[in-house]
Design brief:
Blueprint (H helix, E strand, L loop, with lengths): L1 H19 L4 E10 L6 H11 L9 E7 L2 E4 L5 E3 L15 E5 L3 E9 L1
Parallel strand pairs: 1-2
Antiparallel strand pairs: 1-6, 3-4, 3-5
Helix pairs in contact: 1-2
Bound molecules: zinc ion (ZN).
């Protein structure tokens, strides 16, 4: 389950920030996750429950912001929401498009407690 390794790397980043700022723990954390980042919300929840206790993120409030994937058609320039990576342009049917957003997986905000 790759969600677990993702949560572990979030814990690592949080631990680094806590150490860097001489804080005690994290009070709240905000994550930004693209709808095409390959993250299953349920699996993420499960991984979070499993990996977070006894870390600097224990008890931290968690906010997840999902970013709807959008693409720009290479044929006509139309921008549209996509649910999967190869989706034809709704205007011209072109399959080649540039992903504008939707693969994000990052820590957007972190509040520390000293
Ligand atoms: Zn198009």
């Amino acid at each position: 389950m790759h969600e677990l390794s993702i949560v572990m790397s979030i814990v690592d980043s949080a631990r680094e920030q806590v150490a860097k700022h001489g804080a005690a723990r994290v009070e709240s954390i905000g994550l930004e996750i693209g709808t095409l980042a390959g993250i299953e919300p349920d699996a993420l929840e499960f991984a979070w429950e499993a990996a977070i206790p006894d870390t600097v993120l224990s008890g931290a409030e968690r906010h997840i912001h999902y970013v709807q994937a959008r693409a720009k058609c290479a044929g006509c320039g139309h921008e549209f929401d996509i649910q999967q990576i190869f989706e034809p342009c709704p205007l011209c049917g072109e399959y080649f498009n540039d992903l504008l957003q939707g693969k994000e997986l990052k820590i957007k905000t972190m509040t520390l407690v000293s």
